[in-house]
Structure formats: structure tokens, C-alpha cells
Design a protein that fits this description.
- This protein has a five-stranded antiparallel sheet, with helices on both faces.
- It is built from seven helices and five strands; from the N terminus they run αββαβββααααα.
- It is α+β, with helices and mostly antiparallel strands.
- The longest helix has 27 residues, at about 10-35.
């Protein structure tokens, strides 16, 4: 007796499905290993919604293989036009931990959703780090002393002198004695006078002697 062979279309569809899910499992594994331990990666089989979870890596939600599809999976099953990629949406684990999730729907050749690959990032640690880093980098600008860690250069000293003179609608060499004393006080407070040869630089730019610079700086 000759056996009746199944149609080639049926065999091809079954084989394609197995290959697809085998590849998706490898992708889920790779993502899980890359983003461990902060990101849960779950593969859903939407052709079997009552037992949808077929792979789970970095299990943060406490779910198990064989559990049913989520509301998002059921929505895709019901509507092939449902968004294929939904990224970075707010979510939460059963114990209340905040999460950021991304869900990618996978369609077959006919345009029917057959799988979903989901990533759920536990934000708890990152929120703690964000708070700690925010505290670490905060500065008290209100009560900060006038100080700069950037060493002054000759160009910076000349620029400060030019700016000072410009505020008085004059030129550096036309500054009177009182303005020069105010200028030298500003340069001293900003650390510019700590630069090697600073007195010589100031004297040359103002057209005065170094002795006058030292006298005005007192």
C-alpha cells in the first residue's frame, strides 16, 4: 500500500515555523546574555496564546515557560495591524518595581502575528544610580568662592584686561590709577596673577612698569 503524503505546503509551513522559532530563541538568548542581569528577555509564541512563553532569560518577573500571553500579545493576535514595534513604554513587575519595556511583534509570510520578542528593563538600580550621580555632580553655585581650576594664560590675562577696559568705555592704556587698582584686584582674585610672568604681561598690556603693577596690586 502506498502512503498518502501530506501536501508540500503543510510540510513547508511547519518547517518554516520551527526554523523561525529556533532563530528567535537564539536572538533572545543573545540579547539576554548581552544585557544581563538588568534586562529580562521573553519570547512569546502567539500561535499558542494559552502557553505563549517559550523562552525567558534573566527572569525578573517571576514568570515561567508555558504561561499565557500578555494583553499586548492578545491584542496582536486579534489585530494583524497592531503596532509591530512598541518601544520604551512604562511597565511594572508584579512586586511594584518600575520597568521600561520594548515589544517586537513577529509576523509570518501571510502577515499574521506568530511571535513576540519582549525586553523588560528593571529600572530600580538605574534610578538609584541616577539619584546618587545627581547628588554627586551637584554644586552649590550660590555660595561658591571665586575660583577657577583652569590655569590662566597670557591670552586670558590680556582678554580680561580688554574686557575690563571695555566696560569703562576706554582702552587698557587709558585706565586711570583707581581703575588699574580695581583691575589688579580682579586679576588677583581670579588667580591670573599666579601665572609666571603675570606682572610683566599686565605691565606690557597696560603700558606701565612692573613696579606700578606691584604697587597697584597691593
Amino acid at each position: 500500500m502506498s502512503r498518502k503524503k501530506p501536501t508540500s505546503g503543510t510540510v513547508k509551513k511547519s518547517a518554516d515555523g520551527e526554523v523561525l522559532f529556533d532563530q528567535l530563541k537564539r536572538i533572545a538568548q543573545g540579547l539576554g546574555e548581552t544585557f544581563a542581569p538588568f534586562c529580562e528577555v521573553v519570547l512569546h509564541d502567539l500561535t499558542d496564546p494559552k502557553h505563549a512563553i517559550v523562552a525567558i532569560h534573566n527572569n525578573l518577573s517571576g514568570r515561567k515557560i508555558g504561561q499565557p500571553a500578555t494583553e499586548l500579545g492578545l491584542a496582536r493576535i486579534a489585530d494583524p495591524n497592531y503596532a509591530q514595534v512598541i518601544s520604551n513604554y512604562a511597565n511594572a513587575f508584579a512586586d511594584g518595581r518600575q520597568a521600561k519595556s520594548t515589544s517586537v511583534g513577529i509576523k509570518d509570510a501571510s502577515g499574521t502575528y506568530v511571535a513576540a520578542l519582549c525586553l523588560n528593563v528593571d529600572l530600580t538600580l538605574f534610578q538609584g544610580l541616577q539619584s546618587a550621580i545627581g547628588q554627586f555632580v551637584s554644586v552649590d553655585a550660590q555660595n561658591a568662592p571665586r575660583e577657577s581650576l583652569n590655569p590662566a594664560s597670557a591670552e586670558a590675562i590680556r582678554a580680561r584686561i580688554d574686557q575690563f577696559a571695555a566696560r569703562r568705555a576706554t582702552t587698557p592704556r587709558a585706565l586711570n590709577a583707581e581703575d588699574r587698582r580695581l583691575l589688579l584686584r580682579e586679576l588677583k582674585d581670579s588667580g591670573c596673577m599666579e601665572l609666571r610672568r603675570s606682572a610683566e604681561i599686565v605691565a606690557a598690556h597696560l603700558g606701565i612698569s612692573r613696579a606700578t603693577v606691584y604697587a597697584d596690586a597691593k
